[in-house]
């Protein structure tokens, strides 16, 4: 009796040990409800883009790995659910013994048993572990959604980047051809003493600069082609030869999108669920201080005949109490680790939320700036086109030299190059905003 009293004193003293203070995870973010188009690129009405995106989404190995990660967390959830249920087992054993010092028969014995054990979840420890697994599973699904959104945005931007570079390369080739015509004129004038050596040097320099631009843009094209191949996981690239980025219509950005839309972002939701998962992991680890009570029962037999070994004549039962808090140093440090992990998850959530807010405002400011720049460059190009027409008329009437007309055409081509870039940047920023807000609103 005395020993029993001592055992219960130890149990209750373990339960009364000081608990670490901790705050609950922040409440659910107030979600805003907007219809979000996750296949926004279809609005560009480009069959080749749609085909490319279909290939990317079907073949991308990162998305496939993310799906496998979900299956892993489903298995973890199954393990956590199993902790809430009894554990069943069965065994069978046959043995034979013979006394070699005596001339006697072998002693044959058959043992069989069916048993069940159940650890009573008195303090909700296993339920906390189960809740943690649920949050981790849902977070992994949101991670897949975030990856899917990122790949879509990146793929559309890469497609338009390749289109822009090939369009720009065509413009630079035209500029080079114009410089070659200019060189013929300047060399002829130089031979007749109507141009000096400086003009010859300048046109040679302009031609070399054109070659350098073509080399640089080829390098950029190879880089983007490699990126697109990696996204598609295939070598056959879309043929953009007859596509012009000026023909791509902007889908537009709504000015009515509120900051609350960020609550729909899968990476923000995932960070919040990971925070809750670490919270329940902290609770689970803390409760490892508490005593464990396991109940067991068994049906068994111990017979000398095989036919009798399945009668299960014996019914047994047991109760086991373990006191983990006696290993306090180890348990305390495990609790400290889970506490630090919870604080880190909280900081990670706040960091992602803060970054998303700043990204949101910056992207909209950039979009307005890029839009204004595109409109401004368009106006400059219109003036340049009119100037070229003016030089063409004067050249046709013999009032200007071909030299002046070609220079005007190259100036026009240069502004076309600038406008190509501005259009690409607008498309890129448009897709970035769709990624930031979780789709097209």
From TrEMBL:
GO molecular function: efflux transmembrane transporter activity
Membrane-traversing stretches: none
Pfam families: OEP (PF02321)
Keywords: Cell projection, Cilium, Flagellum
Gene3D superfamilies the UniProt entry points to: Outer membrane efflux proteins (OEP)
Superkingdom per UniProt: Bacteria
Family: Belongs to the outer membrane factor (OMF) (TC 1.B.17) family.
PANTHER family named among the record's database cross-references: CATION EFFLUX SYSTEM PROTEIN CUSC, OUTER MEMBRANE CATION EFFLUX PROTEIN
Protein name as it appears in the record: Flagellar hook-associated protein 2
Organism (species): Campylobacter sputorum subsp. sputorum
């Amino acid at each position: 009796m005395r020993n029993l009293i001592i055992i219960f004193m130890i149990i209750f003293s373990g339960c009364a040990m000081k608990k670490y203070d901790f705050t609950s995870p922040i409440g659910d973010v107030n979600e805003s409800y907007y219809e979000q188009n996750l296949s926004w690129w279809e609005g560009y009405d480009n069959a080749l883009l749609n085909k490319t995106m279909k290939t990317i989404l079907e073949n991308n190995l990162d998305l496939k790995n993310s799906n496998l990660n979900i299956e892993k967390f489903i298995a973890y959830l199954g393990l956590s659910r199993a902790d809430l249920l009894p554990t069943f087992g069965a065994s069978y054993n046959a043995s034979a013994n013979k006394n070699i010092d005596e001339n006697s028969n072998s002693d044959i014995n058959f043992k069989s048993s069916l048993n069940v054990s159940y650890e009573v979840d008195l303090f909700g420890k296993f339920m906390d572990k189960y809740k943690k697994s649920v949050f981790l599973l849902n977070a992994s699904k949101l991670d897949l959604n975030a990856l899917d959104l990122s790949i879509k945005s990146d793929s559309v931007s890469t497609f338009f980047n390749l289109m822009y570079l090939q369009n720009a390369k065509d413009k630079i080739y035209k500029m080079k051809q114009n410089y070659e015509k200019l060189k013929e004129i300047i060399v002829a004038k130089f031979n007749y003493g109507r141009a000096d050596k400086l003009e010859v040097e300048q046109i040679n320099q302009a031609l070399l600069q054109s070659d350098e631009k073509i080399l640089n843009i080829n390098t950029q094209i190879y880089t983007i082609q490699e990126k697109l191949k990696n996204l598609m996981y295939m070598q056959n690239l879309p043929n953009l030869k007859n596509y012009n980025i000026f023909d791509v219509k902007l889908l537009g950005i709504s000015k009515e999108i509120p900051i609350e839309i960020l609550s729909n972002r899968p990476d923000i939701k995932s960070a919040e669920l990971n925070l809750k998962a670490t919270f329940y992991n902290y609770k689970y680890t803390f409760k490892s201080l508490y005593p464990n009570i396991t109940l067991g029962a068994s049906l068994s037999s111990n017979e000398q005949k095989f036919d009798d070994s399945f009668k299960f004549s014996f019914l047994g039962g047991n109760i086991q109490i373990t006191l983990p808090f006696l290993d306090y140093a180890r348990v305390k440090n495990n609790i400290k680790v889970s506490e630090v992990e919870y604080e880190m998850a909280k900081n990670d959530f706040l960091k992602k939320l803060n970054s998303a807010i700043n990204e949101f405002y910056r992207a909209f400011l950039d979009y307005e700036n890029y839009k204004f720049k595109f409109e401004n460059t368009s106006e400059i190009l219109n003036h340049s086109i009119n100037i070229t027409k003016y030089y063409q008329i004067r050249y046709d009437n013999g009032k200007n030299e071909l030299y002046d007309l070609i220079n005007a055409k190259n100036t026009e081509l240069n502004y076309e190059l600038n406008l190509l870039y501005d259009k690409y940047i607008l498309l890129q920023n448009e897709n970035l905003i769709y990624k930031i807000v979780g789709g097209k609103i």
